[in-house]
Amino acid sequence: MEIWINPACSKCRSALTLLDAEGADYTVRRYLEDVPGEDEIREVLGRLGLEPWDITRTGEAEARELGVEEWPRDAESLDRWVRALAEHPRLIQRPIITAEDGTAVVARTEDAVRDALSR
Fold it and tell me: Would you say residue 100 has pLDDT above 90?
């Protein structure tokens, strides 16, 4: 199990606390430092069963500068969204846990973290 975190994020810290309390075996990835590439983002999106706009933090200043709220959310625009996430990792929703069964969850709640633990 791997968890993508931003140490400054309270949701990430809460997820780590819960993982530790449950004795989970996991690897921490500080994704702002160890930035995922486009292929890895596509793979995680597949594991999540989501589209790139579903995990984009559109309220971030970088998102507003890029104008992502105005971008089309369709198949023809997928590459543009994925490229933006790779080039601006701060836009990636966090934390993301890749589970043992090959799936992944955006673990912003205790229930989502527990869901990842149950897989």
Answer: no
Instruction: Give the CA dihedral 32, 38, 39, 41, nearest 10 degrees.
Output: 50
Contact of 105 with 116, CB cutoff 8 Å:
yes
Q: Which residue bears the tokens 């994704």? A: 31
Rounded distance between C-alpha atoms, residue 78 and residue 6, angstroms: 24
pTM for the structure as a whole: 0.94
pLDDT of residue 119: 87
Query: Could you give the strand order of the β-sheet that contains 27-30, starting from the edge strand earlier in sequence?
Result: 27-30, 2-5, 96-98, 104-106
DSSP calls for 58-78: TTSHHHHHHTGGGS--SGGGH
